[in-house]
């Protein structure tokens, strides 16, 4: 084995002599494509020896390999920086020699040097054995060695040798041709506000805030536009459904003349709903058979110039029953109403009911009250006829004397819950029922009916006007079940049927009116103010409308119940009075203020 010769230093003269020998054409030809090149470096070492430099073939090979590495590193580095040439001292000599050889990638050549080391290591023993023969040869020839006299023998192996380094070189060249590196994305410069002053930073912040606010309003406006389009689409679908229902009702009306008038109102409703400029509306649901309820809802407002035309379409039935004012009539012909109620504690309620009846259009208004309340009620107004007989032992007989002169009676305002008064009221109701007089029952009169429903049950000329609490009490007493507040229409219909199809007016946000067959909802715009005595105004005016409705006959109301027509007229009038008084006085409004508006409200609703 040869000793390790990697540590021996080469002088510049020795190196240039080595390059002159290694760069000769015959040496390069012998080295190209031949990995078993130990004999070539033995000859190179021999020539150096002839020049006076004693070097072994292994030292020559290692020196050439190092020079080649430095040369390729310098050549690769010169593409980036020209100073890389300094790392290879013999760059020009190496470039002259290697420039005539086939072009290879410098990096691949650097990588392949290690492969050459391994290949050369496998031939060290051969080089060692050849060195002794070379020394013997030199002694026999006198130390002369020339390639001209002794040409280098090219030895080729008898089997193919794989060259990984060359394959890697070709593969990298192919990859370089086919694969193009992706373009680097330019980096965005970061905004830096370190050097900005506080005022500039604040100004920048305000600008960004304003921009964000503008974007918010822009997006909000877009959202509202989308929402408006969605609502318009829903409204259009609802109108289409209503038109389909109108066509269905038209077919039903053709086969059922009894509800022809209701169908006419339904068609008018659809036409008004198609008009977007008109806020008033009316919707009707007509049953196909008499056993099913007919639900009519009327809601309107007088706050616009089109109110007159709207009222003519909505209130024709009520107008038909109102008697005209002529000079040919005598006193009492347009209505004589009796109010059954008024005790020591409650004197205002019977007064409100009686005076409301007069202001609506009744000619005479009688109040049958207790002796203690008579003077007080009489002092309220000289127009009232007051009878202090309600607490007398023969109260029923005293009132019965007047029943033949009365057109309707209103039982309950200010009645109280004294047993004697309730018993007398019961007798008066029975007497009036026997005479066929329309009866309106309100307030404490409803308490009496809740205790004894049979008093009025089955009498279809009776009209009950309960509020929410009174209706709940009456519903539980008659139907033996608790009321579902979410099903008010069904509840009022059921109670009316259970009471024998008498008319019930359930007062509330909407006034639901039912005679056991139909349900009418009056939702005329009133106000949010609810003052004591408002129900007395309703019951007093309802007594007058009931007389007019029954007097006019069924031909003027197109088959509807007179009680329903009368109840709808009274509810509409009460709500209109409430609205007018509230617009003037607001929270300070009282029932007295509402009563003072009856004349104007009546004219707006029924005479214009």
From TrEMBL:
Family statement: Belongs to the NnrD/CARKD family.
Cofactor: Mg(2+)
SUPFAM superfamilies, per the entry: Ribokinase-like (SSF53613)
Domain YjeF C-terminal, residue spans: 314-605
GO molecular function annotation: ATP binding; ATP-dependent NAD(P)H-hydrate dehydratase activity
EC numbers, comma separated: 4.2.1.93
NCBIfam families: yjeF_cterm (TIGR00196)
GO process annotations (BP): metabolite repair; nicotinamide nucleotide metabolic process
Coiled-coil regions listed in the entry: 202-239
Gene3D superfamilies, A to Z: 3.40.1190.20, Homeodomain-like (1.10.10.60)
Residues binding ATP: 507-511, 526-535
Keywords carried by this UniProt record: ATP-binding, Coiled coil, Lyase, NAD, NADP, Nucleotide-binding, Phosphoprotein
Catalytic activity: (6S)-NADPHX + ATP = ADP + phosphate + NADPH + H(+); (6S)-NADHX + ATP = ADP + phosphate + NADH + H(+)
Protein name: ATP-dependent (S)-NAD(P)H-hydrate dehydratase
HAMAP family to which the protein is assigned, alphabetical: NADHX_dehydratase
Biological role stated in the UniProt entry: Catalyzes the dehydration of the S-form of NAD(P)HX at the expense of ATP, which is converted to ADP. Together with NAD(P)HX epimerase, which catalyzes the epimerization of the S- and R-forms, the enzyme allows the repair of both epimers of NAD(P)HX, a damaged form of NAD(P)H that is a result of enzymatic or heat-dependent hydration.
Residues that hold (6S)-NADPHX according to the record: 414, 467-473, 536
CDD domains in the cross-refs: YXKO-related (cd01171)
Name of one Pfam family that matches: Carb_kinase
